[in-house]
Each structure stands twice: as structure tokens, then as C-alpha cells.
Amino acid sequence: MAITPLFDRIVVKRIEGESTTAGGIFLPEAAQEKRQEGLVVAAGTGRVLDDGTMVPLELKGGEKVLFGKYAGSEVKFGGETLLIMREDEVLAVISE
Q1: Torsion angle of C-alpha atoms 71, 19, 30, 10, degrees rounded to 10
Q2: How many domains does the chain have?
Q3: What is the CATH classification number for the domain harbouring 52?
Q4: Are 73 and 84 contacting, i.e. CB atoms less than 8 angstroms apart?
């Protein structure tokens, strides 16, 4: 089974935060802050303008992105927690 977003939406898998501090102290899951970066799993076809033309998305699957703290909607799919958001909610693409 696969998930395919519609139009200008993307599916992002959040990159998990560290479970220990630099000093080796274990942080319980409730104390960990959710990271604001993730990997694009899937992207829609693009945005439809008022005149009917289709503008393709800039983002593609596999890109590492930075997004806002409250961006997107969390969904559970295939045992994973994913975010579905609009492309314009992405703040930056992270290149390594």
C-alpha cells in the first residue's frame, strides 16, 4: 500500500530527535522536543492556478526539508507517523 498526496501537498517523515543528551542522560519521549526537519516521502502533481494551468512542485521525494513547528497534519499510515502539508509550509531544503 502506498500514500500519494494530491495537488500541492507533500508527505513528510519527521526525523526523530536524540534520545540522550551530550552528557549521556536519557531523555524520556515526553521530554523530547519534536524536530522540525524531515524527509519528503511523496509529492503531489502540483498546484492548479485560477486560470487552470498546473504549476509543478519544486520538492521531490528524498529531499530533506525544514518546516514550521505547527506545519501540516499528523497521520498514522502503515505503522508510521507522517505529516501531510502543503509545499508552501516548507521553510527550506537542507542540502548536505
Answers
A1: 20
A2: 1
A3: 2.30.33.40
A4: yes
> Which one, of 18, 22, 9, lies nearest residue 37 by Cα?
18
Q: Is the pLDDT of residue 13 over 90?
A: yes
Is 10 within a domain?
Answer: no
- Quote the domain boundaries for residue 75: 37-96
DSSP SS3 for 41: strand
User: Sign of dihedral through CA atoms 30, 32, 33, 38?
Assistant: negative
33 and 14 in contact (C-beta within 8 Å)? no
Distance CA 32, CA 26 (A): 10
Q: Percentage of the chain with pLDDT > 90? A: 39
